[in-house]
C-alpha cells in the first residue's frame, strides 16, 4: 500500500509531454527515455500502449514500427471505411503483414477489433496469424467476446437488419421494436457497425441527420 501511495505521489508531479498537464502516469519503456503521458493523450502524441503481456507503452519516437513491404497494387483506400489513405505506413495508416496489400486507418482497425472479438482477422485476406500478433504489438486493443454481429441471432437470422432501439430509455409508445419509415420513430442504425440502433426521437438526432454512431464505435 505504501509503494502504491508513493507511486501516485510521483505521478502527480510528472508532466504529460503531449498536453503538458501534470498527473502523467505512463512512462515510455525505452531505456533512457523519460517521456511521460496520460493514456487518453496517447493517440494525439502518436504513442503506443500494448494491451497484452507486460502492457508496455512507448512514446512516438520509440514505438514499434511496421515492416510491411511495398504493395503490388495501387488501391489507395482503407479496406474498412473505403476512404482514401496514404500509401506510406505511419501511426495512423497501418497494413497487413500477411498479404501486404491491405491498408486501413488505425481508428478503423481498432473499431473492427472491438466488434470482431474472437473473430478478428485481416479484413481483406482474412489472415489471423501473424495479423493478430502484429496488431497487438502495434497497440490495437482486442476483445475476447464473440463478434458483435452474432449477438443479433436471438432476434432473427444473422443476415437480418437490426430492428430495435438500443437507447437507455426508449420513448416509443409502441416499444423498442417499432420503427417507422420516416418521422420521430424512424430507426437509425450505427453507421459503423450496424449492430445497434436508436429511434430519432430517443436521441439528439435532427431531421436532417443522415448518420448516427453508437457509443461502442
From TrEMBL:
Keywords: Metal-binding, Zinc, Zinc-finger. Residues 1-63 form the PHD-type domain. One of its GO terms (cellular component) is nucleus. InterPro entries: EPHD (IPR034732), PHD-type_Zinc_Finger (IPR051188), PHD_PHF7/G2E3-like (IPR059102), Znf_FYVE_PHD (IPR011011), Znf_RING (IPR001841), Znf_RING/FYVE/PHD (IPR013083). The keyword Zinc applies. Residues 78-125 form the RING-type domain. GO terms for molecular function: zinc ion binding. Pfam families: PHD_G2E3, zf-HC5HC2H. The keyword Zinc-finger applies. Transmembrane segments: none annotated. This is PHF7 protein. It comes from Notiomystis cincta.
Amino acid at each position: 500500500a505504501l509503494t502504491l501511495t508513493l507511486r501516485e505521489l510521483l505521478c502527480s508531479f510528472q508532466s504529460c509531454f503531449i498536453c503538458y498537464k501534470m498527473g502523467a502516469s505512463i512512462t515510455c519503456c525505452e531505456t533512457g527515455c523519460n517521456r511521460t503521458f496520460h493514456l487518453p493523450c496517447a493517440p494525439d502524441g502518436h504513442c503506443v500502449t500494448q494491451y497484452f503481456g507486460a502492457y508496455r507503452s512507448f512514446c512516438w519516437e520509440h514505438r514499434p514500427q511496421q515492416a510491411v513491404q511495398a504493395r503490388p497494387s495501387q488501391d489507395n483506400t482503407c479496406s474498412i471505411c473505403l476512404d482514401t489513405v496514404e500509401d506510406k505506413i505511419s501511426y495512423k495508416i497501418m497494413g497487413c503483414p500477411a498479404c501486404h496489400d491491405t491498408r486501413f486507418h488505425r481508428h478503423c482497425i481498432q473499431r473492427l477489433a472491438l466488434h470482431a472479438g474472437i473473430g478478428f482477422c485481416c479484413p481483406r485476406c482474412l489472415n489471423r496469424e501473424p495479423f493478430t500478433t502484429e496488431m497487438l504489438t502495434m497497440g490495437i486493443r482486442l476483445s475476447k467476446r464473440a463478434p458483435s454481429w452474432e449477438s443479433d441471432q436471438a432476434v432473427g437470422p444473422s443476415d437480418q437488419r437490426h430492428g430495435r432501439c438500443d437507447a437507455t430509455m426508449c420513448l416509443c409508445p409502441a416499444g423498442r421494436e417499432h420503427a417507422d419509415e420516416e418521422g420521430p420513430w424512424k430507426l437509425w442504425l450505427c453507421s459503423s457497425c450496424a449492430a445497434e440502433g436508436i429511434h430519432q426521437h430517443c436521441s439528439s438526432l435532427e431531421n436532417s441527420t443522415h448518420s448516427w454512431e453508437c457509443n461502442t464505435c
